[in-house]
Amino acid sequence: MSLSKLNASLEPATDFKRVPSYREVTPTPGASNPARAATLSPPSYNTKAQLSSPVVSTFTSASTLLPVAGSSRRRSTTTASIDSLNIQSIENIRNQASAAFSGFGSNRSESSINPESPTWLLSDLLASFSSVKDMDEYQIVAKGNSLVQLFQQNPNLKNDILMKNILNKILFMFQHHVSEVRSVGYRILRYLISNYESLVVLVQYKVLIYIIITMSTTRSLLVEKEQALKLIREFLTVENGSDYLSIGVIKSLIALIESNNESMDTSEDSFKTICVETICEISLLKPELIFHSGGFKIIINTIIDGSVEMSANCLFILFKLLDFKKSRHLLRNGYDLISIISVFSTLSEQDSESEEKKHEKNKFTVQRLQKASFLISILLKNFNGLMAFSIFNFRMLRDLLDNLRKKNNLVREFILDILFDVLRIKSLPWLAKSSIGDVIRLFNSYLNSESNDEVFNYSTINEDSFEYSLINHYRGLLTLILVKNGIFDLLVEIIDQNTNAKITSKATLLLTNLYAMCNNLLPLELIEKHLIFSNISSQSSFEIDKSTRNKFVPTRNYNASLKVHLRKINISSRYNIDDIEFKAMISNTRILTVKEFEDWNWSLLLILIQGPLSNPKRFEEVLEKSPKFFKRLMSFFRPFKFRFCNISVNSRNSSKFINIGCQLIELFLSLDAGVKYLATNKILPQLTEILAQMDPYSGITAKEPILSRKRLENSVSYGYLKFIGNFSGSAAGLALLEHWQIFTILQNIIDTSINNNNNNLFILTLFRSVDFSLDSQFRTILLKSFKVSNTKIKMFIIKELLPRLINDKQCEVFVIKMLVNSLYNPNTEIVQLLVNMLNNYYRSRSYHGMEFLISMNPSIYVLSTVKGGENLLVNFLSIPEGFKYLEDSGFIDNEFEKWVGMKDFSYLNRIERLIQESFYPFVGSTPSIISKVHLECDNGIPAQPIANSFCSLHFFKYLLSTEEGLNYFSNFKQRNYLDQIINEIEIISAQLKAQDGQAELDNRDYGHMCLINNLKQNLWIIGNIALGKYGIQLLDPLYSVTLKKNIIETIFELFESCTIWQIRGLCFYIIGMISSTIEGIEILDELEWVGVCDYYNKSKCLAYPKEDIADIFNVEISNPYRDRNYFWSRNGTSLDNKNKAGYFPGSSLYTQNLSTSSLDLVDVENEEDDFLSLNNLQKVNERIISQIHYLNSVLGKIERKAHKELLKIKKTTPEIFNSPHLFLEVVRVIDRGNFKFQKRKFIFELFLDTEVLESISRKERKNSMKQ
Known about the structure:
- The protein is mainly α.
- Among the domains are: 952-996 and 1003-1117; 1174-1265, no CATH class.
- It has 67 helices and 2 strands.
- Strands 1-2 form a two-stranded antiparallel sheet.
């Protein structure tokens, strides 16, 4: 269940909508005690069916985990207590609460609304509460529901009432013995809350103590606990409302969560889940309250032992807290996450075959390891998690890797899977078929995203993509960290032991991949000594050699080229033969002796055509001495002999006949004598005639044309079109075709294909056969067909023909011209395909040789509005001719204006989405929170996002790829824009440094989020500029004399000391971008960083510190227990000695007296009997308090003795428990301690059969009247 949606799920528009029996909270007859309460049917939850929204943000950057409201929030002045710290609230709760309130009563008919004044109705209802107090529970609940209904129908009514007056009327409900009555009381209070002041009144009336009692006893039914929890959550909807939640309230939720009730049903279990999510929400709003309540222990335990949804929720709540210094201090800078590693550490050192099979059968163990592996993988693919792992020289990572020493195959396999996943070698192999995969599919189906198993696998990233170098930079960093922490020795040890073939294979694969990544992604000087395996065994050497040995797998193109090469060798060997052998071959074909073509030796005939007959002398010899040979052979292929054309396409030798016919035509066209022979042969006039049968303008008709669709599909008649293709491959053949006016016939046939599909098969077969490499009329026919033919033919030309032709050097210019001239096609689908073809063509050539395309003056408007054209335009900028073309058209100025006027964070959103999809491919695309946060314009209206415009990720990189682009930045407007970006980075960095993490939690509102996102987006822009060939000259004062500040040094300062970890991670990427040029590498070298270059001395945009990798993040463990406020809250003594009454910050009593001193613990009404003297009363009170302390003893004997002693006191002197002073002192003790649910239940039951709550209420009413 999503944290942001939990409030809505707890509060339907008509309250308990999903459980009709609780829509109007009506007590069950006889439910005045726990036994009778069992007859109530609890509300049903289905948390599994509710999708966990934080699974989305699971795979996003930490900055996008927390929704931000659309308006800035004003913060109240903080007090000296830990409860006064204000932490950014979850705005989704507020928005959903507002929507819920505004929707109350909207579905009711007008006739159901009382026409009388709501104020009069309220007065009437409140007056009736004075008399209903003594009535039965049914009437009380009915009146309470009427009051709730009135507030639902009139949500603004709560702003016009005096809350104390209503509280004095309904406070009796919280002392009632029926749980449903108390439930209605909480429900009424929830609808009374309107602002911060209303919360002050609630805590004055000790409502928090009532909530603690409700959560700590079994007399409270589930419906009462639900209403109390809703009231707690209502505090969160008020600005700074979490200030009035106490440690006692949180501890009561924790005790309830940790309770193990054997009779617990699914509803109660789901309610505990909601309690955990409530604690998670409060941890974002007020983490110190959760810390001092022990709530982080619950969150971490839920990560380890909870469901997949809850584990993901809790993990990314911690991710968010790790981003800020003051909140991660409470998690010891993330070192508490080491508990997740314990899942592997608790398993045995080794397992035998039987134990291994036992583990395989133990689904719980496997599922627990799967979840831990999944969560650790997420941690290591996020900078917050990686920095938390870096404490104590990556001790947590070393603890994880040390588990590889165990001879436990299950542990080894899962850890190796983690390493494969975080390095993006391959994804977790079991993820798709696990319960985690089921949750991901459910989430993706909710987002209408892909949910098949393919989304769980990593896809290959194109080298020219923006994220390619970023992902490699992070992978290189992980590789460096792993290598420095001895991963190679551990893997070699596993290979040497060879206890399991599967594990050995995985270890070998990981070892070889890590070694390759070291060579490709890391500078040799940092890892040179780690790449030498001095103690490697022969077994390991053999396994590594076996896995790295290249296995040649021939491709289809390789096989085809090999066949052609072998055929040429075979033909050349038979080119020159003696006369006897030649005559024997001619005779053996049996063409001269037998008329039936079935009896001819077609195989020998093919050898003759390819070999001896290609010799001009042999060819002329046959023409002179055996003219019947060619005459009979050509007669077979003549259309009107109906021999060749009647052969079924399914016959055994059909393809051989066509192949020999094509070879024969090629033979004739390759020889002068052959051309003359063809010119006089009847095959060409007959070929012209069968084509004319398809031409409606020729006047030649046939009942069934030889080239009709039916014959083309069922016979080898399509071979004649292949013959035309052979003619198109030579100048002589083209001349023959032109002589017989075949081109005119073909153009007429094309004209008929506009709205007629009958000739489609004819045209498609023709185009597949024609050779367009020569500048002939076939190109004209192709152009005409693309313009006038029907859609099927156009799509064939675009998808099959042109992609083949554009890769032919002889057709390249023709196809590019054709594509550019066709960009104005009104069919947007066709234009999209054409642009994609151009983009794919130039991308395959690394966008080189674009000068001709630019000379064609392609439509900038079309390219800028069609997907794929953007890449072409940005690459135009990298060529002087392209830059001039775009500048002259005014395009560069227009696009630069978009960057100057960019007021949203679409650029940042786009980059973070790419990084997220690269590391978490299984997460469907969701709108980032950043995209919803806009910087406001001067007039206060948010600017429109430009994510869909030309503002490409590569714009500045390519703009600064030429000297012309560098000169463009010398203009005032462009220079001013860059100065503005740099100044904003400097100013925001200075603010963050001045805060030093102390004020950031109080400012995590809309304005603060905009500030941080603005810094991140500006840093990405600087990185994009640094990627340009001449970009570094704009950033280094050595080149730019106008540069006032060294922005590169500022980036390094942010990386080394920024309190926000995500910004430190972003700066790591920016440093890699700075290293994209030789000048940038030199600058980094001065700052003790080393860049990575390839064999051609070209930068790979990767850079790492020269110092020890252990100090790269310089994160140390922090101890929140050394905080002086911690001991203040634990010991109940104020540092300035102002807390003389014994209150301590965060306690229920302290919280309730932040705004009033109406309760005097000493001066209470003496309601005890006269036989107890004051001294005896004090001694008994002290004795009770001591015994309650003993109840929390770790020694069972002492605990049992205290339990008996308290029961004895209760039996002998029950009136002592009527003392408000004693009760409030007990509440203080419970708030301080860590009492389990059963102990809380026992303690509060000592007081619940007395009138102590009534006494406290009477005192509060008197104090309120005095005020």
